[in-house]
Amino acid sequence: MKDTIDLRALIETIAAETGFSGDIRRNEPMTAHTTFKVGGPADLWVHPVGDCFPVFAAALLRRLRAVGIPLFILGGGANLVAADAGIRGITLDTSGWTGAEAARGGPCRLLVRSGTAVDDAVEAAAERGWGGLEFLAGMPGAIGGAVWMNARCYERQVSDVLIQTEILDYSPSDGSFHRVWVPSAPGEFSYKHSPFQKWDAGNRGPLILAAEFGLEKREVSDIRREMAAHRRDREEKGHYRYPSAGSVFKNSRDFGKPTGQIIDELGLRGYAVGGAQVAPWHGNIIINTGNAHAADIRDLTEQVAEKVRDATGFELEPEIIFVGEWVTTVRIGVGNLRRG
Ligand SMILES: Cc1cc2nc3c(=O)[nH]c(=O)nc-3n(C[C@H](O)[C@H](O)[C@H](O)COP(=O)(O)OP(=O)(O)OC[C@H]3O[C@@H](n4cnc5c(N)ncnc54)[C@H](O)[C@@H]3O)c2cc1C
Prior knowledge:
Blueprint: H1 7-18, E1 22-29, E2 41-48, H2 53-67, E3 71-74, E4 80-82, E5 87-93, E6 100-102, E7 109-113, H3 118-127, E8 130-131, H4 143-149, E9 152-153, E10 156-157, E11 162-171, E12 176-183, E13 207-214, E14 216-217, H5 220-236, E15 244-247, H6 259-265, E16 272-273, E17 276-278, E18 285-288, H7 294-312, E19 321-323
Parallel strand pairs: 2-5, 3-5, 4-19
Antiparallel strand pairs: 1-2, 6-7, 7-13, 8-14, 9-10, 11-12, 11-13, 15-18, 16-17, 17-18
Helix pairs in contact: 1-2
The structure holds flavin-adenine dinucleotide (FAD).
């Protein structure tokens, strides 16, 4: 059935029914939407802007689920390797659904829409003299992706401050998607893992609409000092020197040392495949030196994992997510391979 569906006509019908405003484009290059700056065309890229987002997204999820068309939910694209062949079906870009405001649930509660840049959320908390999000200062990406990933840095993770998450939840009784707040339950989040990665709510996991963070009153000058220190540290570590997606592989206690150190000790800094290179200054970052294809990044990721396996027996698990249509099967991190 899906082969016969005109995707654009379908989306324009849903758009007309839901007061959509924003952009709809065929064959949108993912190079423009990923921090790695790689990736082929998304068949249909849909970018709702403003208050139409939840109503449009709910109608979209319902229709796509009914007709079996795949959906990919795009945040800031800061943790993705989008395939050179692109992403089939619909790519829903959440970056037009932004904003942060005080939530009603209690003092120092910040409600942030999922498409809001992480740095903007950190600023919104700082402006109010609310501490707790400083650790995320300077981290690329959007809040929806940070919750989905349970992003982590400087010994803290998103779930430390996440009170509840608003999602579009699937109702099997009538096939609709509706807005629901899900309280954060202890034990459901762990290292780089959120419950939303597995939640089988519909087409493919739930769409995160917003997050509510529980913060604490703090001197604005102290908040800003800590934010500046984290941003400076990232600068010094070369995070913004080249296009990348931050750390490539997860750490593991079983290794007894950081994954980057293991890769360093094997002399793999600077090791390259095409335009992808292990950063000459950090073993756990792969950079796009200018003309990398997604396949170069994938091959390099696999080769580094193989070399580590051969030398140490450790199985590295990628943190970066391979999305879209790969011509050959991705050999590692198959759990991370998400077809578009
Ligand atoms: C220079 C650099 C430094 C980095 N440093 C760190 C770091 O210190 N710690 C860290 O944890 N990460 C780091 N990252 C990776 C990245 O910034 C985070 O993982 C970020 O949280 C990803 O968010 P995103 O919005 O870009 O998600 P994307 O990359 O767009 O998507 C990631 C996943 O989340 C899903 N998703 C996104 N939004 C939603 C939504 N609204 N609803 C449902 N699913 C959604 C996507 O479908 C995808 O599966 C770094 C990246 C870069 C480029």
